[in-house]
Amino acid sequence: MPAFAVVTSDIIAQLQSIAGVEQVSIAQADLALRARDQSHHAAHPGDVVVWPQTGQQVADILRLANACRIPVTPWGMGTSLEGNPIPLYGGILLSLERMTRIVAVHADDFQVTVEPGIGHKDLNAALARHGLFFGPDPGANASIGGMLANNAAGIRTVKYGASKDNVLQMRVALADGRLIRVGSRSVKQSAGYDLLHLFVGSEGTLGVITEATLKLYPIVEHMGAALAAFDSVADAVQAVVAIRGSGLDPAALEFMDAAHATMLREAEGVNLSDHATLFMEFHTPNAQALETGLSLVGSICEELGAVSFRATTDPAERRRLWHARHASYEISVRKYPDQQFYLGDVAVPISAYPALVQYIEQVRTDYGVPLYLIGHAGDGNIHVELPYATDEEYARCVKINGLIVRQAQDLGGTATGEHGVGIGKARHMRDEHGEALDVMYDIKRLLDPNGILNPGKIFPGHDE
Ligand SMILES: Cc1cc2nc3c(=O)[nH]c(=O)nc-3n(C[C@H](O)[C@H](O)[C@H](O)COP(=O)(O)OP(=O)(O)OC[C@H]3O[C@@H](n4cnc5c(N)ncnc54)[C@H](O)[C@@H]3O)c2cc1C
């Protein structure tokens, strides 16, 4: 890691002249609030928070930081789960929280151009009056910039894709102070290297997104939800593969183990039994297609041994169910108030999902530890939640997660389906990418030769 310079009063004065006095803070409260994300990784504050308000200000801040060798860590909403926005080496915490404008709604093109700090829920609330919405939905009100930087996905990705599938054009500020446009507003693009998708998923290590044009979908009128409960995890995940293979097109296909279903019932009062459960949602253009879809999915689940199946088109009930599903992580955390959570995020091709889940079940038995399973099953993505309190238990979580990651990679999958690499997954990148990781280093060095952009992330080397 290169040696960084300290943030002096002269640097602060220069930041104030770029962004304005009110947009720069060294107050402990501002630094502490942005010293950690929602993961278990330890907090580390920046030395100064800056809230730029234009793309040009972002570029000017980067040019200054690069010339002075000051680390810069971009910050969206801080909801990451792998330590991605923690300013490990101090320096400038570049918060995009005040760049929240909707620049233009291109309703006829099903597109919107936004600044990066807007939350996706806030964006969707504003788009509703145009009858449009942005598809990817991580549970938290993550910022668009943070979602693109992590390539976030979520419950609707099975139908609407991940963040990378829903962006057409971005403006990106580079370490040397250039402000470039990547991509275009055309849905079809084949003009040279795909720089757009180089920056998507780069977690603020290659540049800072200052504007993005996103793809949108019309809000469908007909939505239905279904719940299927199974005696065994194996039956439930087998049903996932069958539903995906049936040609049905779920808008969400989520899995949770019996322990999670019980927690949700107790905490949220939703009508769930103590069984491995599939949560599903369907979006269709008319009522008949919805009825047919719900009936077909019911038959598949019953054939595969569901002990119960319930479908609803009642909007209030559907919202209640999804609210409970979204709250599941917080509910787990609340259940263990004196413990921390180690959260895994592996993904595999859908046909390998049953084998992966079976392996995780075996690990649970072998280690005799509390271990909860929940995931976006329709995408082959699963989160393993492991509570821990002591250093010894933490070391065991790292070991168990390492085994699960290795199994997912061996099954043709990945160490991280949607949370990104951050600090937590860096140790698995060599296994995942082999020599391609060296090419990533080369790209990083080309765009950020002084290593100022979000140092300590993605690449192995930073000791946790
Ligand atoms: C309860 C809960 C549920 C979640 N569920 C899901 C889920 O289902 N699916 C999912 O994918 N994620 C999920 N997440 C994780 C999280 O919401 C996502 O990782 C999200 O993308 C983080 O966005 P953020 O705005 O909070 O970004 P931050 O956490 O602030 O930053 C994320 C990364 O992007 C960088 N960054 C931020 N803004 C920019 C920018 N403008 N330009 C360049 N880099 C930038 C940061 O440096 C950091 O590396 C969940 C989190 C919580 C707390």
Q: Which percent range fits the helix content? A: 25-40%
Radius of gyration: 22 Å
Shape: globular
Bound molecules: flavin-adenine dinucleotide
Low-confidence stretches: none
What name does the CATH topology of the largest domain carry?
Uridine Diphospho-n-acetylenolpyruvylglucosamine Reductase, domain 3
- Major beta sheet summary: 8 strands, antiparallel
Q: Find the structural class using helix and strand composition.
A: alpha+beta
Please tell me about this protein's structure.
- This protein is α+β, with helices and mostly antiparallel strands and 464 residues long.
- Helix content is 36%, strand content 20%.
- It is globular.
- The model has no long low-confidence stretch (mean pLDDT 95).
- Bound molecules: flavin-adenine dinucleotide (FAD).
- The site of flavin-adenine dinucleotide (FAD) has 36 residues, from β3, α5 and β10.
